[in-house]
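Progress report, Aim 2. The chain analyzed during this reporting quarter is listed below.
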Amino acid sequence: MKVNLRIPTSLNEITLGQYQEFSKLDNNTKISPAEIQLKMIQIFCNVSELVARGMRATDIAEICEMLNNMFDTEHQLVNRFKLNGVNYGFIPELDDMSFGEYMDLDTFIGDNDNIHRAANVLFRPIEFKRGDRYTIKEYDSNTSETAKDFPLDAVLGAIVFFLHFRERLVRSYAELFGQEEREGFSTVSNFTSKYGWFNSLYAIADGDITKFEYITKLNVYECLTFLEYTKEKNEIEAAQIKSKFK
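Predicted structure tokens for the chain:
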């Protein structure tokens, strides 16, 4: 069967949404390698199942090898790209991000079904540009569906860059981020896992829900410093009280 295909030649020609769709196959243990190849053709070459099944096996294998080789590359940061007439830019300074932005990034970046919500934090429409410098729009969580159309090379490069930033942040606040490891499988640990960053938001707001929105706009370092200070202060006070009863 003769078929005209548009085969991607780089990750720039694959969308995040296509990547998310294909990644769902990882959780399907019943699908065979041959079926995975057919799905790869369908998703990344944007053809129907009927068309994919009508192709020669050798052509399918060759195309899948080309696609696999594209993914097996080192992902570089792409600062800007254009999509549907809109110029998007990566967060100019990660150190300046808000606590709310960091919470959403940390929550969604490892979740394939919601990774577009993380990409929506990392890339936003450019408001002003002069030379290589630019500013981007304020973060809006309601525009995350648009991120499914972002080019995959930009998204993967941004994720790698953010994860390096996160590693540095975790090292800087070792006492704060090391708490869960020490708690193990205790009730406290399970509670923390269930509510995630809501625990931190609740602590900074001192339980006042009316302050939540304001706190999400504070700088991430301000909030993490407060949380680490509060944690160490509570531990010292608890140790002092405990020592009095020995």
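The radius of gyration is 23 Å. The beta strands are 80-83, 86-90, 123-130, 133-136. These observations will guide the mutagenesis work planned for the next reporting period.
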